Amino acid sequence: VMMLVSDEKPGIGGEPLLGQKIKPKCSIYPKGDGSDVPSWVAFDKQVLSFDAYLEEEVPDKSQTNYRIRYYKIYFYPEDDTIQVNEPEVKNSGLLQGTSIRRHRITLPPPDEDQFYTVYHFNVGTEVVFYGRTFKIYDCDAFTRNFLRKIGVKVNPPVPCPEDPYMKIRREVLEHVEPLRPYESLDTLKQFLQYHGKILCF
């Protein structure tokens, strides 16, 4: 019977065919002297945190041509899942929060048959999630130590650009003086201070 099989289909007994190289589907951590426990047990409740930014073009170019958006990329070594969050910034005018929910993400073409692993992340590199390029500029101390232990040379932190729109807003607010300075009135303090006192005329 004629059948269409993948190029990664192994031969009889699961052995690769002559000249065949099967691509790994998950992270391959170096073998140490510890116990051979599965990754979901060894790396339980451990997460790698990377600081990244994204340069996004804006439709309204009256003030700026682009916006710089800052993200937190969380990589879970237990199952190679990735989650991307955008910390909320006050008065940014953008929808922020969870950008990409936790799941395994495939590499950009032509390697869309493979998934991102821990070895694809490093300071100063770029990762592409669904057509959006995230530039990693820093990571926390735990992530840096974790990468060094598995043999990855971690690059030093790189400078992160400032959002031009937020810079313009901050400069405008610094030069604006209120027309009517006012003092806040604490009504609760007034209620407790004059409680039980009556003026008679």
Automatic annotation (TrEMBL):
Classification via SMART domains: DM10
GO cellular component terms listed in the entry, alphabetical order: axonemal microtubule
Gene3D superfamilies membership: 2.30.29.170
UniProt signal peptide: none
Gene: EFHC2
Primary localisation category: cytoplasm
Compartment annotation: Cytoplasm, Cytoskeleton, Flagellum axoneme
Source organism of this protein record: Macaca mulatta (Rhesus macaque)
Keywords noted in UniProt: Cell projection, Cilium, Cytoplasm, Cytoskeleton, Flagellum, Repeat
Boundaries of every DM10 domain copy: 44-151
Protein name (database record): EF-hand domain-containing family member C2
